[in-house]
Specification:
heterotrimer; A alpha+beta; B alpha/beta; C alpha+beta; B: Amidase signature (AS) enzymes; globular; C: alpha+beta; two-stranded antiparallel ribbon; 3 helices; 3 strands; flat
């Protein structure tokens, strides 16, 4: 057991899902050929001025509400001044003394235990551009497409004491932002990013140790590994009687260790001052209420609804709501076929199983919830056998299409053809006199054998119930 | 026609009456510029091609009966207002070859009216100065005395109008940069209320103080230009959502009963006696027309210079950080980003600009922010309060525009403090965001013009234009001999 | 009052400006005089209240979220050194 305990706080940057950038009218979409989503404003041309995107402000207010923050009635914008080639104005428009959101909290669950993480503040700012380094020619290439994409920065209190807590929190935030329609939270595209402030102190100590800041962490896995590596590094330092130096570090994934980034002392004097180009904003109670009321159903409410209204097991509801894409798919399916329990079961039992096997990709499904719902409905109403339903689902995953046309094409419907059923079963009974005798002498287990044989021969052309009824009838003759 | 005294109204009449064509008219001005600007140096760039093209377009508008107030009217534009495809230097080596990829909103508005661009007027580098002697390209001289400064920073604009190289010009005013050169060059210039004119496309010096405005032969022409350039702009969040009146509407209305305040601090010993005397005489004239003179006080004036320079330079330091040699502008040398940016800025900016950047960063840097920048903002609130109090008992305020008439070129070289102090009469108007107009109220014995400033309530340009116009009706200006 | 060399050097760092030895001496003197002038403001003793500037705008006056066409990249890059549609920056030392 370690003699220290770690304390962590997070700074999370999330890009907002606005159509246009936060201070100009360029598209806020991800990517694009270099500098194709730029204008004189976001490229920092002399004489240009920023104008604030209404929607971006609306989104940060929503973010504040879903994290139980206080929303300031008076908010203003500041310039954070520093030189870097990805920042064309040489200042970032951000918020310092008067952010939109203050002091909130978010509940997390770790190993069955509930914990509250306090939010210090959430403020609105603009993203910077991207640099591609060309080491051979000793140059960097600057692309400003990302400049001016609206970001919120969520700053937590130092309330974390393990990597698990950090991950649980990030997963929670991700869901909240996704369900509120604020951010798509694609870590791999950088639409949500997390910096970790981390320090350790001897157990029992009431004072925090010197902290370091871990930056450029681009996956949950990297965050866990970086935190563990950094804790280990700090422990070793203290064990050897050395000091932790306050600095910014990045995580080297290959080596599995954190590395100090070059930091210049002067670079930290950001000379914040109110941006004279953007007047402060005053919100009315009505405006805030309207935004609050427009927040869609959040994950916790959904789980509750699924359990109470749909009678879905809590564990299953957790799974469905735990991935917004799955949950949206589920909602669509239920709107087509009002049997939430069956839909949920088939999503979890079949669809997600195949996704986990890597056979399907939730981001690139070739069919929608409606088609999926039809399939479940056919199965539930004995129109298609379970075995054939699986075949159809595989076909839908591979080539798309709706279950009806696939069943039509491949002749997969259950046919209530009593002649065919009678012929097949009669033959099985005729060919297996021993088994018939066993059944008649009271060995009911043998019934399964007849069912299996019949199913095999009928290939789903009759419903299990019809087969069962006919076999039972014949055997009792 | 004689363009040396022509107002915009007269040119409009002549153009509409087909007494002169738009091309011919701009040709006359271009000819005069070619002949005489070599001595005055009011232009950095003369845009003959653009002038020709826009004159043709304007003539077409006139011929089709679609002319408006400025169709075919040639204008000079200060070299810090961006024009798409036209070199815009801010009189700095930094932007020597800079071609903006977009138009300032005021240029869009003037284009819609079919104005004709004669050229880019010189100025102090990045509008920092009061003499146009910090210009890297054209250190403009005063048309009344070529050994004197034209004032600044819009010295090129004011000199061009005074010398009749253009009937009017656009300038910009951060701490007096329209009014003071108008005063030195014997023309009329107005700084509108902060927010009245869009700043989009004006290369920022101090964003909370900058305002574009016209310089012309008289208040009437200023009103005509204001009509064209004012109004809310969705590209400028600080531009006011307010209806724009017809600024010529109240011109000619008598000023009987108008209450004119003369704050005593503006008439102290620090102001040249000849200036005080001419402005006081003008006040007496206005009194004869029925105005009522009111005593008042702006005690905050005592701290106005530091407050102004702290705010302006803090904003400027940040605004000018974007000039790094990467995206546009002078690209220095360097193997690393750090080296390149330092070399570009050190060689691209002039000495005064650098001093102001240093001062701005001083005011904002950690440990000094509260003592300087925040204090200056407190003072801004105080000055606004004091002006509000004055406007409770007066309609306009009358002050000298500058403590002195135009001074000899070189007189303030190497003395930044003296240079800063000379802005004392104008800076509080910017700090308080008020409109102010400077018009000539007399001449020194040597024939140098002296200006007075009329300051109004926020968004009440109409009353100061009316007052200036009332004064101008009884005043005969003397044109410079060049 | 003269400004300390250390202060001027810090300001040059923040401002990204270089001076040669002579230039530095000169600007130190000038900045000393300028800061003396600025110091007069210390005689004024009112506090700043940022909520009382009276320049706020209403939330509904912010800009609608509508994406419009961007500017052509060639035009934006026409004042710069560029490769493959990007601005060329000398290597940023990490």
């Amino acid at each position: 057991m370690s003699a220290y305990f770690p304390t962590m706080g997070l700074e999370i940057h999330a890009e907002l899902l606005t159509d246009s950038k936060v201070f100009c009218t360029c598209s806020a979409e991800f990517g694009g050929t270099p500098n194709s989503r730029c204008c004189p404003v976001c490229s920092g041309f002399p004489g240009t001025l920023p104008v604030l995107n209404h929607k971006a402000v609306e989104y940060i207010i929503k973010a504040g509400y879903v994290m139980n923050c206080e929303i300031s009635r008076f908010t203003k914008w500041d310039r954070k001044n520093y030189f870097y080639p990805d920042l064309p104005k040489a200042y970032q428009i951000s918020q310092m003394p008067r952010p939109v959101c203050l002091s909130g909290n978010v509940k997390i669950n770790v190993d069955g235990e509930e914990k509250i993480i306090r939010i210090n503040r959430i403020h609105l700012e603009e993203d910077a551009g991207k640099l591609v380094h060309d080491d051979v020619n000793r140059i960097s290439l600057a692309d400003y497409n990302r400049c001016g994409i609206p970001l919120i920065e969520i700053v937590t209190e130092p309330d974390f004491h393990s990597a698990d807590e950090v991950i649980a929190f990030l997963e929670k935030i991700k869901l909240l932002l996704q369900y509120a329609g604020i951010c798509d939270c694609k870590m791999e595209q950088g639409s949500i990013r997390c910096d970790v402030n981390i320090s350790i102190a001897p157990k029992g100590s009431t004072e925090l140790g010197t902290r370091t800041e871990l930056k450029n962490l681009n996956s949950l896995k990297a965050i866990t590994r970086a935190i563990e590596a950094e804790i280990e590094r700090q422990e070793e330092l203290l064990d050897n009687g050395e000091r932790v130096i306050q600095q910014t570090r990045r995580f080297n994934e290959q080596a599995g260790e954190t590395v100090a980034m070059r930091s210049k002392e002067d670079a930290h004097d950001y000379r914040y001052f109110p941006d004279p180009d953007i007047p402060p904003i005053i919100f009315t109670e009505e405006e805030l209420l309207e935004i609050k009321n427009s927040i869609p159903e959040l994950p916790e409410q959904r789980i509750e609804r699924y359990v109470s209204e749909y009678s879905i097991k809590k564990a299953d509801a957790d799974i469905i709501v735990g991935d917004k894409r799955v949950c949206d798919f589920f909602e669509e399916a239920v709107s087509e076929y009002d049997n939430p329990k069956a839909v949920a079961n088939y999503i979890i039992g079949e669809l997600m199983r195949r996704i986990n096997l890597g056979e399907a990709d939730m981001d690139a499904l070739k069919f929608g919830g409606r088609e999926f719902a039809k399939l479940v409905e056919y199965m539930q109403t004995d129109k298609i056998s379970q075995a054939n339903a699986k075949t159809i689902l595989r076909e839908m995953i591979e080539n798309g299409g709706d279950p009806k046309s696939i069943a039509d094409r491949d002749d997969l419907w259950i046919k209530e053809d009593s002649g065919a059923l009678a012929a097949v079963v009669d033959e099985i009974i005729a060919n297996n006199p021993k088994a018939v005798e066993q059944y008649k002498s009271g060995d009911r287990k043998v019934f399964g054998f007849f069912m299996g044989q019949a199913n095999k021969a009928l290939k789903g052309a009759a419903s299990p119930k019809a087969i069962q009824d006919y076999i039972r009838k014949k055997l009792s003759e | 026609m004689d363009i040396t005294k022509a107002t915009i109204r007269e040119l409009r009449r002549a153009l509409d009456a087909k007494e002169i064509g738009a091309r011919e008219l701009c040709g006359e001005y271009l000819k005069r510029i070619k002949e005489k600007d070599g001595r005055v140096l009011s232009f950095i760039t003369v845009t003959e091609n653009e002038a020709e093209q826009s004159a043709l377009r304007a003539q077409k508008m006139i011929d089709e009966g679609k002319s408006s107030a400025l169709t075919g009217i040639p204008l000079a534009v200060k070299d810090n207002i961006c024009i798409d495809g036209v070199r815009t230097t801010c009189a700095s080596r930094m932007l020597e070859n800079f071609i903006p990829p977009y138009n300032a909103t005021v240029i869009e508005k003037l284009n819609a009216e079919g104005y004709v661009l004669l050229g880019r007027a010189s100025m102090d580098e990045f509008a920092m100065g009061g003499s146009t002697q910090t210009s890297a390209f054209a250190k403009t001289k005063n048309p009344y005395d070529l050994e004197c400064v034209p004032g600044g920073s819009s010295g090129g604009s004011a000199a061009a109008v005074a010398a009749a190289f253009a009937p009017a010009a656009l300038g910009s005013d951060t701490g007096g940069s329209i009014r003071q050169p108008s005063s030195f060059c014997g023309v009329t210039g107005i700084k509108p209320t902060y927010g009245r004119v869009s700043r989009y496309g004006l290369v920022a010096f101090a964003s909370s103080l900058d305002q574009i405005g016209p310089i012309a032969h008289d208040a009437y022409d200023c009103a005509i230009l204001l009509n064209a350039i004012c109004g809310h702009d969705r590209r400028d969040a600080t531009s006011a959502r307010r209806d724009v009146p017809d600024f010529t509407e109240k011109l000619g209305e008598p000023i009987k009963g108008l209450k004119i305040a003369m704050p005593k601090e503006f008439f102290s010993e620090d102001i040249d006696s000849v200036v005080r005397e001419r402005v006081t005489n003008a006040a007496k004239e206005l009194e004869k027309q029925g105005a009522v003179l009111v005593d008042c006080s702006i005690p905050g004036l005592k701290y106005a210079i530091p407050a102004y320079y702290l705010i302006a330079c803090a904003e400027a330091a940040s605004n000018l950080s974007r000039f790094d040699g990467i995206k546009y502008g002078f690209r220095g040398e360097g193997r690393t980003y750090e080296e390149l940016i330092r070399d570009s800025r050190s060689r691209g900016f002039g000495e005064e600009v650098k001093r102001r950047i240093l001062l701005g960063n001083y005011a904002l840097s950690s440990g000094y922010y509260d003592a300087y920048y925040k204090k200056a903002l407190a003072l801004k609130q105080e000055i606004i309060k004091e002006y509000n109090e004055v406007f409770e008992k007066a309609d306009v305020i009358l002050t000298p525009t500058a403590p002195t008439p135009a001074y000899k070129i070189g007189a303030q070289d190497n003395d930044p403090v003296k240079m800063y102090m000379a802005d004392i009469c104008t800076v509080t108007v910017n700090i308080a965001g008020l409109p102010g107009i400077s018009t000539t109220c007399g001449y020194t014995d040597g024939g140098l013009p002296i200006g007075m400033s009329i300051i109004g309530r926020r968004f009440d340009e109409q009353t100061i234009l009316q007052t200036a116009n009332a004064w101008e009706q009884g005043f005969t200006p003397v044109a410079p001999k060049i | 009052m003269a400004v300390e060399l250390k202060t001027i050097q810090h300001l040059c760092e923040l401002s990204k400006l270089n001076y040669d030895e002579e230039g530095l001496k000169k600007v130190m003197g000038e900045m000393g005089d300028i800061i003396d002038l600025m110091d007069e403001i210390k005689g004024f003793d009112l506090e700043y209240d940022d909520t009382k500037d009276g320049c706020e705008i209403r939330f509904c006056d912010t800009s609608e979220d509508i994406a419009e066409e961007s500017a052509p990249a060639e035009k934006l890059l026409s004042n710069a050194e560029s490769i493959d549609g990007c601005y060329v920056v000398p290597k940023v030392v990490e």
